[in-house]
Amino acid sequence: MTSPDLRRSGVPRQPGQTTRRLCSASLLGQALSVFFGALVAWQLDRALAGGTGDVLLWGGCALAVLCLVAAGAMRSRAGIYLGWLCQVLTVASALVLPAMLFVGLMFAALWWVCLSNGLRIDADRARLAAGPDAA
Fold it and tell me: Which of 25, 99, 125, 133 has an alpha carbon within 20 to 30 A of 40's alpha carbon?
């Protein structure tokens, strides 16, 4: 039996406490990694006299801020969608700094694990809180 909080897509209207905590921690680590990746891209561009270093720095900082906003928005369903957007943009940042492909794939996998396990744990807690009659 499915929880009444689940829609047809399987994504709850509001993520539970465990999902919020796991996904927010993942996004916080991702924000730090993206910020440091932006600093690397900026310095590499300056060393190679590319001329676009400031754009790379500001773009990376914007992505890091988006990760923080997504972590803060995890109280609603929009946080899940913003989190997925952060994953896509982080993997796409490998076009500028190829080492970000590893970072992006690592955090995308971590995001998926946190999201799927958090939703499962929250559903189990809701089922247990409903009592033995609901099972």
Answer: 25
